[in-house]
C-alpha cells in the first residue's frame, strides 16, 4: 500500500490542516510515529495561535508545503514515554514550542541556543530525520524527543500555551538584557501577541511601560486592560519625538512595523558569543531590537 499521511506512521492522529493559500483549515487524518526510546507522546489539550501560523498557512513567507498542520505553542498530558526518557512521566503536563529537533553538537546547540542551530527542525512544516513532514499542535496527539519537551508547572494554567512562543520571545530578552529590574522605562512597539506578553512581563518586573502603536484603538486595551503607563501613536511625529533622546529601552514586538522605527532606533543583534552588536546597515535586523539609553 502506498504511503499516505494516514499510514506513513503507526499511530493515528487527527488535526486541522491548510491545503492551500486560502487560509482555511479543514479536518485532516494523519499519523504520528511510534514513541521512540527518547520520545514523549502526549495528548494535546491546548495550542496557541501564533501570527506565524497565519503567515505559514497562507504561504506569505513563500516556503510553505501543503498540507500544513500549524501550531507551536502546544500543551498537553503525557500518554507514553520511551524507555530512556527520565524528564517526565505518564500523566505529567508538558509543553512543546517552536522546535522539535536540532543537531545537538554545534556551538549553538552545546550552549543551549538550539534556536540558532543551522539544522534546527521546526515543530511543523519541516522535514524530520525520518524524511516525513512535521505536523504541529492543531491536532490531538504529539510525539517529540524529550529534549524539546518542557515540563509544565503544576500551578500554571495549561491554557497559557502562548508562553511557549510569544512568551519566551519577549521574556528572554527582558531577562537577558537585565531589564527585569524595577524602575526602568520600557517602550513596546506593537500590541499584538508579542506585545501583550511584553507589557505584562515588563509590568511584572516593575517597569514603567509605554506602548507605541499604529492604532489609537489599542490605547484603552494598553492602559486599562494591560496596565501600561502611557501610549504613543507611532504615526504622529510629535508624539514620537518624545522618544528621541530619552533613556528608554525600546522593544519591538511587531514584525510588520519594525522597519518604520529605524529613524528612532539603533539596530542591534546578538552574535555567536552572546554579545550585543550594532548592525552595520540595512538588512541586518533581528526580531527584537533595542536602543539602550542615548
Ligand atoms: Zn510563534
Ligand atoms: Zn546544532
UniProtKB/TrEMBL annotation:
Cofactor: Zn(2+)
Protein's UniProt keywords contain Oxidoreductase: yes
PROSITE patterns in the cross-refs: ADH_ZINC
Domain of life: Eukaryota
Keywords: Metal-binding, Oxidoreductase, Zinc
Record flagged with keyword Transmembrane helix: no
GO molecular function annotations of the record: cinnamyl-alcohol dehydrogenase activity; zinc ion binding
Alcohol dehydrogenase-like N-terminal domain sequence ranges: 36-154
Pfam family, one: ADH_N
Biological process annotations from GO: lignin biosynthetic process
InterPro entries membership: ADH-like_N (IPR013154), ADH_Zn_CS (IPR002328), CAD-like (IPR047109), GroES-like_sf (IPR011032), NAD(P)-bd_dom_sf (IPR036291)
Listed CDD domains: CAD1
Name the record gives this protein: Mannitol dehydrogenase
Natural source organism: Capsicum annuum
Amino acid at each position: 500500500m502506498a504511503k499516505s499521511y494516514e499510514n506513513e506512521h503507526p499511530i493515528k492522529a487527527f488535526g486541522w490542516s491548510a491545503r492551500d493559500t486560502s487560509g482555511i483549515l479543514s479536518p485532516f487524518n494523519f499519523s504520528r510515529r511510534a514513541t521512540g526510546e527518547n520520545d514523549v507522546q502526549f495528548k494535546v489539550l491546548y495550542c496557541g495561535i501564533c501570527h506565524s501560523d497565519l503567515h505559514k498557512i497562507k504561504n506569505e513567507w513563500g516556503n510553505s508545503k501543503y498540507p500544513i498542520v500549524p501550531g507551536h505553542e502546544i500543551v498537553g498530558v503525557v500518554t507514553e514515554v520511551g524507555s530512556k526518557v527520565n524528564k517526565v512521566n505518564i500523566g505529567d503536563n508538558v509543553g512543546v514550542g517552536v522546535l522539535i529537533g536540532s543537531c545537538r553538537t554545534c556551538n549553538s546547540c552545546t550552549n543551549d541556543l538550539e534556536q540558532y542551530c543551522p539544522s534546527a527542525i521546526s515543530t511543523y512544516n519541516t522535514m524530520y530525520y525520518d524524511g516525513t513532514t512535521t505536523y504541529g499542535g492543531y491536532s490531538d496527539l504529539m510525539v517529540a524527543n524529550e529534549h524539546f519537551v518542557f515540563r509544565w508547572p503544576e500551578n500554571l494554567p495549561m491554557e497559557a500555551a502562548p508562553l511557549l512562543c510569544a512568551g519566551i520571545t519577549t521574556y528572554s530578552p527582558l531577562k537577558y538584557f537585565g531589564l527585569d529590574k524595577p524602575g526602568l522605562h520600557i517602550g513596546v512597539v506593537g500590541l499584538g501577541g508579542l506585545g501583550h506578553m511584553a507589557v505584562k512581563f515588563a509590568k511584572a518586573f516593575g517597569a514603567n511601560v509605554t506602548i507605541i502603536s499604529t492604532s489609537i484603538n489599542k490605547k484603552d486595551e494598553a492602559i486599562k486592560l494591560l496596565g501600561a503607563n502611557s501610549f504613543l501613536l507611532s504615526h504622529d511625529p510629535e508624539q514620537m519625538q518624545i522618544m528621541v533622546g530619552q533613556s528608554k529601552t525600546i522593544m519591538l514586538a511587531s514584525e510588520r512595523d519594525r522597519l518604520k522605527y529605524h529613524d528612532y532606533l539603533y539596530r542591534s543583534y546578538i552574535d555567536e558569543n552572546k554579545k550585543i552588536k550594532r548592525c552595520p546597515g540595512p538588512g541586518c535586523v533581528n526580531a527584537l531590537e533595542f536602543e539602550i539609553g542615548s
